[in-house]
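Researcher: Quick test of sequence recovery. Tokens follow.
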């Protein structure tokens, strides 16, 4: 198997998080689960968005939605990607121009996509994404893991106990 370039569009704090995840054992786990891979290496470096799009086999988006990121990936950006590339968006739907992505998937501009977020949620039953053979869609549940629930519910119990003891924690400030 050839080497694969996985590139992410991340905010500064997201980059540190991805780095911690990868260096914290995800690479070892990937190697264990896929011993046929020649190598999996983390060679992170900063590059322009255009270079990232042109070089990547997989582009994974990890950005907050704002004025600068809305529509960040449109027809031009998808056209820069390799025909064999995949786009992953688990951040916010409007970061990617849905109409441009539908065209790119339909005409083979890119190989495929994985989406957990959409412009409109829940995704309408008649949406074009539901008919495309080269897309994997999930209903905005990418965060649903046993570990996430353990943390959420653990914090809830801690919050209630601390409040009842008169020593609230994680207090929101207006």
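Model:
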């Amino acid at each position: 198997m050839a080497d694969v370039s996985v590139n992410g569009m991340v905010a500064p704090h997201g980059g540190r998080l991805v780095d911690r995840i990868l260096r914290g054992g995800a690479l070892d786990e990937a190697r264990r689960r896929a011993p046929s891979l020649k190598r999996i290496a983390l060679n992170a470096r900063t590059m322009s968005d255009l270079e990232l799009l042109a070089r990547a086999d997989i582009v994974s988006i990890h950005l907050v939605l704002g004025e600068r990121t809305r529509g960040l990936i449109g027809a031009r950006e998808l056209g820069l990607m390799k025909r064999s590339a995949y786009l992953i968006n688990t951040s916010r739907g409007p970061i990617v121009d849905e109409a441009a992505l539908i065209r790119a998937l339909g005409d083979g501009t890119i190989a495929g996509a994985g989406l957990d977020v959409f412009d409109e949620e829940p995704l309408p039953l008649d949406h074009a994404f539901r008919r495309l053979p080269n897309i994997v869609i999930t209903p905005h549940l990418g965060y649903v893991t046993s570990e996430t629930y353990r943390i959420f519910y653990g914090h809830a119990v801690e919050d209630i106990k601390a409040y009842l003891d008169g020593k609230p924690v994680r207090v929101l400030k207006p």
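Residues 4 and 57 are 6 Å apart (CA to CA).
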